[in-house]
Design goal:
single chain, mainly alpha, 66% helix
Length: 74
């Protein structure tokens, strides 16, 4: 793209650069929030079954260790 003087215009200079810097200021906190939600989801998904083992063993009427090792149906 050519400017008024016939020179090629570089992207990210002048007014475009100022607008780009302002619009990018939200990215840092957004990335941080996304990582926090991912960590929360991962930890919840990994630890929730451990917390529910006692309820599962009671409803299946088998020992807690049988449910934890996966041998309740054998």
């Amino acid at each position: 793209m050519e400017g008024v003087a016939g020179q090629a215009r570089r992207p990210g200079t002048g007014r475009d650069r100022a607008v780009g810097e302002r619009s990018a200021s939200w990215r840092g906190p957004a990335v941080l929030v996304a990582l926090m939600l991912a960590a929360f989801t991962f930890n919840t998904a990994e630890n929730l079954p451990v917390g529910l083992l006692e309820l599962v063993s009671g409803s299946l009427r088998v020992s807690l260790s049988a449910v934890a090792t996966g041998t309740a149906g054998c």
